[in-house]
Amino acid sequence: MIPDQRKTDEELVAEAQKGSDLDFSILVDRHTNAVFRLAYGITRNTQEAEDIVQETFLKAFKHLDGFSSEKANFRTWLLTITRNQSINVFSALKRKTLRFVTSTDDDERYYDSAGNPHSAYGNPEKLLSVKQEHKKVEQALAQLPKRQRTAILLKAQESMSYEEIAAIMGASASSVESLIFRARKRLMEILENLEK
Amino acid sequence: MNCEDFKERLSALLDGELASNDALTAHEASCPDCRTFHEQLILLNDTLEHLPHPNPSPDLAARVKDRLTRGDSRQRELVWRKLPVFAVVVLLAIGLGNLAGRSISELYMQNPHASALDLIVPDQGNSLSDVLVEFGSEDNSQ
Predict the structure, then answer these.
(1) CA–CA distance, A42 with A142 (Å, rounded to integer)
(2) Were both Cys, which of A154, A173, B93, B126 would link to A162 (CB 3.0–4.6 Å)?
């Protein structure tokens, strides 16, 4: 049977568990960007984030037989692996004091949340202003404690519920609510200080 | 409700995790600071949602799939997992083969017209010396 792009994650996982590599490859195509976004959100490093994407899918593939759609959502399970991988890498990066670098290469690869090239291209003044604004928010995000940053990025960029974020972070939904609230308050404070 | 309670509940409300209620509405109506906070929070959420992020290299998914095909760690794991099954199949095959051999030898043994040479059946369990003795005794009787 030809794998169908319209299959749900659960259907694809079921086929992949029976040995269909093609169905697993659809899952890879479907979730690569989300895994990358979370990995980048935690490590702030594109190269490391790409390595984490590879390791995440290798792990997921290796342990696919142990995954049960009845117990968890595939995306949540995948992002849990991503978070764990990212935290390990983040700790290693911290030890190497490679902190929050936005390289020229990274700037050239920036896209909006829909995956389109940055909308301010073609207007150098506007681009500069938008870039500065985003840089401030990036700086503010980088100053957040790791758990707060992970929680707020999963909320803002992946539109996940507190319950889903809690599953990924190994916390309760009420802890997530508190983490996200504190992250927002802290971001506002940092941004206010940056304006001064 | 104090301002801190309002702000925390507002955060959950904007995330769709909490239904609006009269206490929230009443507090906001009477607190200019919290109204400002509400506006700032909407702006912040919007900025975070639309924050550009570096996209992965276009060939990243292809590289992942390539590594899966080459490394195939799950396949390795499956081979190990299937090893006991393989062992059972081999043992069964040996057992069945042995049983089949025994029944053939028994068939030969029950045949009174079997020649001395026919008695040399490997699966019968006879040692070489036994066979030679039997072979010799038949010779003597003739």
Answers:
(1) 9
(2) A173
On whether the pTM is more than 0.80, the answer is no
**Spatial distance between the Cα atoms of A73 and A70, rounded to a whole number of angstroms:** 8
Which of B48, B65, B73 lies closest to A156 in CB terms? Answer: B48
Q: Which residues of B touch A50 (CB under 8 A)?
A: 56-57, 60
Using an 8 Å CB-CB cutoff, list chain B residues near A110: 52-55
Taking the CA atoms of residue A151, residue A155, residue A158 and residue A160 in that order, the dihedral angle to the nearest 10 degrees is 100
A46 has a chain B CB within 8 A of its CB: yes
Closest residue to A33, CB basis, from B41, B56, B74: B56
B66-116 pLDDT per residue, tens? 998 887 555 545 444 555 666 677 777 777 776 666 555 555 455 545 444
Q: Which of A153, A110, A142 is nearest to B54 (CA)?
A: A110
A58: its two tokens: 């290798």
Question: Taking a C-beta distance cutoff of 8 angstroms, is the pair A128, A46 a contact?
Answer: no
Q: Which chain A residues contact residue B43 at CB under 8 A?
A: none
